[in-house]
């Protein structure tokens, strides 16, 4: 804990009034002042996080991209899972209507070995998912072709051996797919959205070995389902489905009730491209999230009785297309990450556990089109994994890295010309390898605040260094770190004015 004191004598013959003020929260930027108390306002900040932990200032989280290579003419889809059964997360990537490859992770996410699942181009596949279809403990791959061929299952028999099984012909229209144990019989089934038929179906893995599949309808006349996701959101032991549709601009949940399905509207939004279940509040019951591309929003919906209500709208990412939910920071609730091909950016929103979110900037890669999540570097926390449809670039993001430096400038505080002196002090935790510095300026006029003077560990006489008869005061904090995993933390800045002290 660092505490620094600044003593500011002022030349004035008016009676001195005592004034004690402190700033212990920073929650409203753009407040230039002058103000008579700081409350939570401040003028500006850069590179600092003032939202995650109310009452604390620290370096912001910034993403760093770890490129793994590329895939042909562009990545149409990606998925994460332990494909080779060695305990770490590998990555499967699908070239648009072309090859399928998987990247073998050595465990640290740094050097990958590429293996082929489907080496020849021209497969027609546009989406895929990882699942243990044959019950042998390793992950297989299901892929859809959106009108060109039925769903295909590629059975993982080790490294580069992936024999293909075709699913029922009715699934030739499938675009979106999601694995889940729909009938709660212990094996993995599939949910699929059929675009031209405007249906959602599920395919029963009849014998649990991935060899025979029976098709059942979840809903008809829904509009083309762009995305589907399956999870037991009502915690009754079977899987339910959430989907985003082109027609009607709708997001809806289909709740399974004894083999039948009940549609529950979630939202009517313009052009949702993706919808997923996500436990953003950590209560064990999935909430809903959707990407609304025309509205430039990522939305969160919470269930209240039989209805769903919008509780958050994340902005700042133009035209979000796909989202992924995972507990990126390990605090027990799930965050949301989204990609935009139009903006070429990845953004994520940190769940603060109380229904609110802090927006985070990750970074930019041209043409980002798909996203998944997995613990790529073996640190126990999942990371976003993305692919680009334009460049074919595949890589993962370390979103918890901190900015190397940041600053905050306070609102101008009116302290009155009658002050005999002004003392400013602050509390901060400064780990080794980090630094925190406090600067101050004071002047008779708010329009001519003068130069910044660093507050040292001792005493600074503003009567000599700044201006006499100071009526306005402003501080500036500068934080930095040489280690992206560490940050200094500022907890409080205090100001006291009063009569000149007896010397």
| C-alpha termini separation | 29 Å
Look at the structure and give the mean pLDDT: 86
For this structure, the CATH topology of the largest domain is Methylamine Dehydrogenase, Chain H
Largest sheet: 6 strands, antiparallel
Tell me the Rg in angstroms: 28 Å
CATH class of the largest domain: Mainly Beta
- Helix content range: under 10%
Proportion of residues in β-strands = over 45%
Give the number of domains: 2
Tell me the CATH superfamily of the largest domain. Answer: Integrin alpha, N-terminal
CATH architecture of the largest domain: 7 Propeller
Give the overall form: elongated
Please report the total strand number as a whole number.
40
- Class by helix and strand content? mainly beta
pLDDT below 50 for ≥5 consecutive residues: which ranges? Answer: 1-16, 463-467
Can you count the helices? 1
